[in-house]
Amino acid sequence: MSEVVIKTRKLTKEYVRDEFHVVALRDADIEIHRGEFVALMGPSGSGKSTLLHLAAAMDRPTKGEIEVLGSKLNTLSDGDIARWRNRHVGFVFQSFNLIPVLTALENVELPLKLTHLKKAERIAHATTALKLVGLGDRLGHYPRQLSGGQEQRVAIARAIVTDPDILLCDEPTGNLDSKSASEVLSLLSTLNKEHGKTIVMVTHDPHAAHYASKVRYIDKGELLTEGTMPEDWKSMSA
Amino acid sequence: MAIPITYNIRNLAVRKTTTVMTALGIALTVAVLLAAFSLVEGLKTAFEGSGHPLNVLVTRKGSDSELSSNFQRSVFNDMKFKQGIAKDSKGDPLASLEMVTVITLASEEFPEGTNVNVRGVTPTGIEIRDDSKIIEGRWFTPGRREVTVGSSVAKRYPAAHLGGKLKFGRGEWDVVGVFDTPQMARKSEILTDLNQAAGDFERTEVLSSALIRATDEVARQALVNDLSYDSKLNVQAKTEKEYYAMQTSSGDLVKYLGTFVAFIMAIGSCFAAMNTMYAAVARRSKEIGTLRILGFSRVAIMTSFLAESLMLATLGGILGIMLVLPLNGISTGIGSNVTFSEVAFQLRVSPEIMVRGLLFALFMGAFGGLLPAFSAARKQILVALRQI
After folding, report:
1. Helix and strand element counts for chain A (H, E)
2. Contacts of B294 in chain A (CB under 8 A)
3. Residue A105 — pLDDT band, cuts 50, 70, 90?
4. For chain B, what is the total number of helices (H) and then of strands (E)?
5. Can you give the pLDDT at residue B307?
6. Exposure of B356 in the CB half-sphere (CA atoms within 13 A)
7. Interface test with B, best of A98, A107, A114, A165 (most B CBs within 10 A)
8. Any idea what the Cα angle at residue A218 is, between residues A212 and A221, rounded to 5°?
């Protein structure tokens, strides 16, 4: 069995909203191995994004432990987390989150600014990443000059440019038409199969989940046992 | 490494209107401050550049200015043979007994009239003022009711043009010449024969001051000390340069007023910059969250927004300097609170003043940008990403 890159134990996240106590994630135990493409599925508000955010150290758990690539995230300082995230994690958002005033190339170069690479090397790496996602001819385009699918591909290029160990994708096809969504999912699949990237993708789209090598369901904050899915989802996936 | 500066520059360019309006607010504040500074700087240049390094001005003890000094002719006769006083070609001491009074002359700017210095001097007085050169007409002739005016006087007062007549004392005086000198303060004076003027003003024995030329710098200081500590003479001596430098205080009121107005405006400009930057932080909340996820630290976010505010302020500062630059070299006059007469001088926007204006703008940018930058850095990633 390959190395475990994400491991959680009794991971719990609770919020207090308007005096209401909300349990977003309860006692989640999961192990994700290097090279896996895992889809986290569940209805809206089920806690799947919460799990992804905790794995990216964008949020801190209320209880439990989370270990990513051997680092216990609860023990790292803000500065250490920022460096750790830049080095080990690529993140793809549903709404792309490109910087509108920077070109495709500059957007992709951005995370490399935190490395020791020289300007020419950064440009070369960013160009390679954009070529890999099929946008080698759109280097100087601003986000507003690109289609949604192209924007998401730039976002993926930005996520992989630092050659991270893990790619975390939060509903990456949620804002795309079916054709663009298929292109993006194929790209993620290629990154997983041909480049060995570990991918964790949150989605509520069964079609998107088919691209993953493993699907885990979350319902009402509880991570279901591997191989099981909520009753009301069985009919949807069939 | 920091967030690229192009990110901030382009963001400023994207919201052109807000950027320009905020920068203009800062520019006007800087312009007000620099206008006040340019006046003081001009005045400083006029006064500090006036006076010969070897000249010593002697007034009665306790008098701040020649105008308020009652200087006895007998005292002058006692002191003019002191050691260290330079001699002219005939071997006479280069010491000039002088009388200063003010007259009122109408200018186009002030038809009701402003005070102008009239200085009665002896031929030695002209000799000591060796950098004063006739540019029109000639020097006055002793014993006649004639005056020679400084170039600033000729320029500002229609009646003081060559060939004109000035009315003061017991009658009219012919303007027979115009002189120029590199020393700004002297350009604003009218020179005439000492005895003629003293007679007109009935001050034949009680005059104003003495101007003496020392042989060298060492002798000058010795002369100043000797005269000031001679209890029999009861006079005070200053180098001519010190005397004029003291008059720079005439611009203090304008300086304080200008600084005060600029300070009040600066508070407004700081809030304008703060408002602009808060709006920028709110609008770019999602970008802040994204930058944090990419690995940029809170400090990098804060630095980036602070740098943007400073860029905005720099733009404002440059605009402010450009607004005030046309004032450079404009001639104006100010009433001296030492001589009670008007001194003509040129407004001066020096590189030092421009740097001060830019620093002032940067201060406004830093003050206005600090809190928004801090709030940007403090944003929680998830909260930032959820804000629209």
Report:
1. 8, 10
2. 85-86, 91, 110-111, 114, 158
3. very high
4. 14, 14
5. 94
6. 16
7. A114
8. 150
Report yes or no: B59 and B178 within 8 Å, Cβ to Cβ.
no
- Give the residue-averaged pLDDT of A142-171: 94
B67 close to B208: Cβ distance less than 8 angstroms: yes
Whether A236 has its CB under 8 Å from any CB of chain B: the answer is: no
pLDDT confidence bin for B355, thresholds 50/70/90: very high
Contact predicate B233/B79, CB 8 Å: yes
Instruction: Please say whether the beta carbons of A38 and A214 come within 8 A.
Output: yes
Beta bridge partners of A199: A37, A167
CB contact under 8 A, B2 and A93: no
The span from the CA of B52 to the CA of A13, in Å, is 83
pTM: 0.74
Measured between CA atoms, how close is A229 to chain B, in angstroms? 28
Q: Which residues contact A45 (CB under 8 A, 6 or more apart)?
A: none
Buried/exposed code over B316-337 (b: 16+ C-beta within 10 A; e: otherwise): bbbbbbebbeebbeeebbbebe
Q: Which tens digit of pLDDT belongs to each residue from A204-215?
A: 888 899 999 999
Residues of B in contact with A114 (CB under 8 A): 1, 294-296
Ranges of each domain in chain B: 5-48+249-386, 55-213
For chain B, list the strands marked E by DSSP. Answer: 55-60, 71-72, 95-105, 114-121, 133-137, 146-150, 165-168, 171-180, 189-193, 206-207, 209-213, 235-239, 331-335, 342-346
Q: Which domains does chain A have, with CATH numbers?
A: 4-237 (3.40.50.300)
With an 8 Å Cβ cutoff, the interface of chain B facing chain A consists of 1-4, 6-7, 10-11, 13-14, 286-287, 289-298, 381-382, 385
CA-wise closest residue to B51 among B185, B225, B228: B185
Interface with A, mutate which of B11, B290, B293 (most A CBs under 10 A): B293
Q: What is the rounded average pLDDT of the residues A88-105?
A: 93
pLDDT digits (tens, 9 = 90+) for A149-159: 999 999 999 99
Cβ–Cβ below 8 Å for B1 and A53: no
Whether chain B has a CB inside 8 Å of the CB on A48: the answer is no
- Taking an 8 Å cut-off on Cβ atoms, the answer to whether A86 and B294 are in contact is yes
Tens-digit pLDDT profile for residues B248-291: 666 677 778 778 888 888 888 888 888 888 888 888 899 999 99
SS3 assignment for B232-280: CCCEEEEEHHHHHHHHHHHHHHHHHHHHHHHHHHHHHHHHHHHHHHHHH
- Minimum Cα–Cα distance from B285: chain A residue: A97
CA A79 to the chain's CA centroid: 21
